[in-house]
Amino acid sequence: MLAGNQLEITGTNFKGDTSNDSYTNGIFLRHSDAIIKRCSFAHHKAGAIMIDMKPQNRVFILENNIVSSETGGIYVQGKSAKPFIKGNKLKYCHASAIKTSQDVDAFVSSNVW
User: Fold this and answer.
1) Among candidates 64, 72, 58, which has minimal Cα distance to 41?
2) Quick check: pTM over 0.90?
3) Quick check: 2 pLDDT over 80?
4) pLDDT tens digits for 87-102?
5) Three-state secondary structure along 23-91?
6) From residue 104, how far is each of 15, 80, 84 by CA, in Å?
7) Which H/E stretch holds residue 100?
8) Which of 13, 31, 32, 94 lies most in the core, judged by the most C-beta atoms within 10 Å?
9) Contact between 93 and 113 (Cβ < 8 Å)
């Protein structure tokens, strides 16, 4: 998603490419506001949810199911970013299930992996 937009997505299935061994993302969000809620992500080699935030962006990642993500389930970067990550279920992530860059001040609660 391009910078400066708003995304609200609920109850959507994101399936990566399992037959061609491709590096796919479920959602790649850049400098935008978002609510990502009750979605399913499976088989994304380049990460299920990848986010590059600014401090003024409001991002909520809530109650999603993420399965088999090779480079990470949820990744957030951006100086002084404050994403809200709660109630997600992450299974079979080959790298970190939830990862933030050093200068992110994330609220992470009640996630299961």
Assistant:
1) 64
2) yes
3) no
4) 999 998 888 899 999 8
5) CCCCEEEECCEEEEECCEEEEECCCCEEEECCCCCCEEEECCEEEEECCCCEEEECCCCCCEEECCEEE
6) 28, 5, 11
7) strand 98-100
8) 32
9) yes
Tokens of 34: 């978002």
Tens-digit pLDDT profile for residues 40-85: 999 998 999 999 999 999 999 999 999 998 888 999 999 999 999 9
Q: Which residues pair with 33 in a beta bridge?
A: 6
Residue 80: closest CA among 60, 61, 49, 105:
105
Per-residue pLDDT at 18: 77
Structure tokens that stand for 44 in this block = 């994304």
Structure tokens that stand for 74 in this block: 């949820």
* CA separation for the pair 90, 34 (Å, rounded): 20
In angstroms, the CA 64 to CA 112 distance is: 10
Strand order in the sheet with 89-91: 13-15, 40-44, 65-69, 89-91
